[in-house]
Specification:
The structure is a single chain. By secondary structure, this protein is α/β, with parallel strands linked by helices. The protein has one domain: TIM Barrel. Helix content is 46%, strand content 15%. The chain contains 14 helices and 13 strands. Strands 1, 2, 3, 4, 5, 8, 9, 10, 11, 12 and 13 form an eleven-stranded parallel sheet that branches. The chain has a two-stranded antiparallel ribbon with strand order 6-7. Helix 13 crosses helix 14.
Length: 337
């Protein structure tokens, strides 16, 4: 199982942080789209590393067109020496409409077309196939030599889709090379909803899940001291509560019979009672979403939870911690300890 890390440092520090993470033994270095352009952070990371995969987890697809993403990803694939993992996600309706001022409709079918359009564009550049993509949402039929890059020596990048619901997950199985689980997921949801949906998508194109990569992030609660552990516990509960208040993530809770928790948390969120929300996350909920262990118990717990279910994982740590805390985890997973 690969262990990845998410960059959370200021963008100007991305390159140096990526170098340190590669030296520490992480398999992949991921950048999220929040306050900076993720493609620029990937470029900075690629320039200071040589072996680790560099990727987006995620870049907001619907804030862009397939052509703009195809160009950026093609450049980064070449500049990274073929190490790019293009992780795509939808974001939610309000952000697409009101933050990005872009169209929103039928997210699963639209994402399916988005990825197919990417592949058509890359094929026109790498294989000389005439660009003739006509879909319901995207139309790409013009590519003149002046605007066509030379064939990429590393081919197109790996594409992974992020999702929660079964429809988007099934689309990922059909058109992507891998799937990025949201951190707000559980082993039970993976087994009962996510993996069956991926399998259906793969079966629709005559393929199995063999060679298809699933990334399963996990919340981690740990600490070297009692005080550190208490902070980790409090902040992780708050983050789980934040996600659990979102209507789109209610199905994850419903698998466990906790659907009403979403309603209760959403009501508190609407009243801006954020500090109270974490108090509703009891031990059963916490232990379903998070690994709660001493530092030397994290790697065994991750292996027990995810072995055979996912091919890569990452640590979701919503609190400040000493980087040295995580080195034994990296080493244990890297060397199979």
């Amino acid at each position: 199982m690969k262990l990845d890390v998410r960059l959370t440092v200021p963008q100007r520090q991305a390159g140096e942080a990526a170098r340190r993470y590669e030296e520490a033994g992480y398999s992949g270095i991921w950048v999220s789209e929040t306050t900076h352009d993720p493609f620029l952070s990937v470029l900075l990371s690629a320039q200071t590393t040589t072996t680790a995969e560099v990727g987006t987890s995620i870049v907001v697809a619907f804030a862009r067109s397939p052509m703009t993403v195809a160009i950026s990803a093609n450049d980064l694939q070449a500049l990274s020496g073929g190490r790019l993992v293009l992780g795509l996600g939808t974001q939610v309706r309000s952000h697409i409409l009101h933050r990005f001022s872009m169209p929103w409709s039928h997210p699963a079918p639209r994402m399916r077309e988005f990825v197919l359009a990417l592949r058509a564009i890359w094929s026109s550049w790498n294989e000389g196939v005439p660009l003739d993509f006509e879909g319901e949402f995207y139309h790409h039929t013009l590519m003149t030599p002046f605007f066509a890059p030379d064939p990429n020596p590393f081919g197109p990048p790996k594409v992974m889709l992020a999702g929660v619901g079964p429809r988007m997950t099934e689309v990922a199985g059909e058109v992507a090379d891998g799937f990025i689980c949201h951190a707000f997921t559980t082993e039970r949801y993976l087994r009962e909803v996510t993996i069956p949906a991926l399998a259906r998508g793969r079966a629709g194109i005559g393929k199995s899940l063999e060679g298809f990569e699933i990334s399963g992030p996990s919340f981690i609660v740990t600490g070297a001291t009692g005080e550190e552990f208490d902070i980790a516990l409090r902040e992780t509960k708050r983050q789980i509560a934040f996600y659990a208040s979102t209507p789109a993530y209610r199905p994850v809770l419903e698998v466990h019979g906790w659907g009403e928790l979403q309603s209760d948390l959403n009501a508190l969120a609407r009243q801006d009672r954020w500090d109270e929300m974490g108090e509703l996350i009891d031990d059963d909920v916490l232990n379903s979403f998070a690994i709660v262990a001493e530092p030397n118990g994290i790697a065994p717990a991750l292996a027990e939870r995810f072995e055979g279910l996912v091919q890569r994982t990452s640590l979701y740590i919503p609190y400040e911690s000493d980087p040295s805390t995580w080195q034994p985890v990296v080493d244990a997973i890297r060397w199979g300890g």
